[in-house]
UniProtKB/TrEMBL annotation:
NAD(+) binds at residues 175-182, 261. Its cofactor is FAD. Disulfide bonds join 41-46. The keyword Nucleus does not apply. The lineage of its organism: Bacteria, Bacillati, Actinomycetota, Actinomycetes, Pseudonocardiales. It comes from Pseudonocardia thermophila. This is Dihydrolipoamide dehydrogenase. GO terms for molecular function: dihydrolipoyl dehydrogenase (NADH) activity; flavin adenine dinucleotide binding. The keyword Secreted does not apply. GO terms for biological process: 2-oxoglutarate metabolic process. Keywords: FAD, Flavoprotein, NAD, Nucleotide-binding.
């Protein structure tokens, strides 16, 4: 049996951060990974999906300026994606392994499972024992809906879409969340004819309603056949591809991307050996301690907790978890007060997210609906993004902004921007929400001219009027 201070199961960005921060605190750490060090985000999610989107977005941006012509070669886009994901390299994750080992972390290959208190077994590897903590950072897995016939055909999951080497002539996309919207636009611009089917009445159901409406309009402008309020009733093989039964209509596609959500990946991690239910989220406190397991030794971070399933938010929680483990091991005080050193408070009130469609959606904090449901007295300010900076950015720039203000405290509790390149507005909004900056103070944060961030001045003027 090999013994370490900390064992981290899962070497995606979340596991890497938990391992790094625990090691910085003076602890020996083993990082166990069944696939590639770097995880889902690096090879099958965030990085390749944005690589597939970026060229099409850049070309569309150029076409919004007079006197420019722009085209692109889809094959070059796929090749650029491969360069980012290391596809074709002798060892695809060699750079990530080199980083971990250079940081003093022991990397172990194999599928890890809990085997009781502070014990982890590894397929084709050693049994590991932890002196202080085990961290589960296994992420999430796609959910496949129970549609008749779906198991009779070969469908794409998100990994298949981001790993594709060419665009199918006809692509069906099932689901109107972030993955469905982003991949629908990416493949439409790469040459597919895309049909997006979503049972809900609007895309991006967790965002402000106007965000989904504007993304739907952007997809349709690109030629995507967006069908809201329509799902797939049955799936069957077809001589020309895959037949989708949509009400009374048969839609034939060459590939079907199922993008109907994800769930915590806790099925095969051995959580039953410590009294937890496999296949469910590992509920944690704000320091990452898993609830329902005595002894303060089992931690979790990232998607597997079900808290805020986003890479950046998981990395944030992992940094806090790693630091909390190191502090407890050293006998130091733990600060779990709101926004304390060992409390992932932002998971509850200030989660930022970007949807990298065209138009982009950038949002942080509470929507109007969620703020009112929480009992907050709010005033909502809505404005078009129509400032000198946006006019110079693109002819016919079309964007919208909303802030949700707690009128009792006069602080912003939520903000949403929709439009070309609004992602760069998001961190200022995140700082305002996390810092609970009073609007009277925010009035003195002067936006530079001529930038799209001038919309902040217009929003505050509208609130003060």
């Amino acid at each position: 049996m090999s013994t370490y201070d900390v064992i981290v199961i899962g070497a995606g960005p979340v596991g890497e951060n938990a391992a790094d921060y625990a090691h910085r605190g003076g602890l020996s750490v083993a990082l166990v990974e069944a696939e590639l060090v770097g995880g889902e985000c690096s090879y099958w999610a965030c990085v390749p999906s944005k690589a597939l989107l970026r060229t099409g977005h850049a070309v569309a941006a150029l076409r919004r300026l007079p006197g420019t012509k722009a085209e692109f070669d889809p094959a070059a886009v796929f090749a650029r994606r491969d360069a980012f994901t290391g596809r074709g390299a002798a060892v695809q994750d060699a750079g990530q392994v080199e980083w971990a080992e250079g940081a003093g972390i022991t990397v172990i290959r194999g599928h890890a499972r809990l085997a009781g208190e502070k014990t982890v077994t590894v397929d084709d590897g050693p049994t590991l024992s932890a002196r202080h903590a085990v961290v589960v950072a296994t992420g999430s897995v796609p959910v496949r809906p129970p549609i008749p016939g779906i198991d009779q055909v070969e469908v794409w999951g998100s990994r298949d879409a981001t790993s594709a080497q060419s665009a199918p002539a006809r692509l069906g996309v099932l689901g109107g969340g972030v993955v469905g919207c982003e991949m629908a636009q990416a493949f439409q611009r790469l040459g597919s004819q895309v049909t997006l089917l979503h049972r809900g009445e609007r895309l991006l159901a967790n965002a402000e309603p106007f965000a989904g409406e504007r993304v739907a309009a952007g997809l349709r402008a690109d030629g995507v056949d967006v069908r809201l309020g329509q799902g797939v009733d049955a799936v069957a093989p077809h001589p020309e591809g895959i037949a989708l039964t949509v009400g009374d209509e048969a839609v034939v596609v060459d590939r079907l991307l199922v993008a109907t959500g994800r769930r915590p990946a806790s099925d095969d991690v051995g959580v039953e050996t410590v009294g937890l239910e496999p296949g469910t989220a590992l509920a944690t406190d704000d320091s990452g301690l898993v609830q329902g397991v005595p002894g303060e030794w089992l931690y979790a971070a990232g998607d597997v907790t079900g808290r805020a399933p986003l890479t950046h938010q998981g990395k944030y929680a992992a940094r806090i978890t790693g630091a909390a483990i190191a502090a407890r091991a050293a006998g130091h005080p733990i600060d779990t007060s709101p926004f304390g050193e060992h409390a992932a408070t932002a998971d509850h009130r200030a989660v930022p997210q970007v949807v990298f469609t065209d138009p982009e959606v950038a949002a942080v904090g509470l929507t109007e609906e969620k703020a009112r449901a929480a009992g907050i007295a709010v005033r909502v300010v809505d404005l078009p993004i129509a400032v000198s900076g946006s006019a110079l950015h693109a002819d016919g720039y079309d964007g919208a902004a909303r802030i949700v203000v707690d009128t009792e405290r006069e602080v912003i509790v939520g903000a949403t921007f929709v439009g070309p390149d609004v992602a760069e507005l998001l961190h200022s909004a995140t700082v305002a929400v996390v810092g609970e900056v009073p609007l009277g103070r925010l009035w003195h944060a002067v936006p530079a001219f001529p930038t799209i961030s001038e919309v902040w001045l217009r929003l505050l003027e509208a609130y003060r009027s």
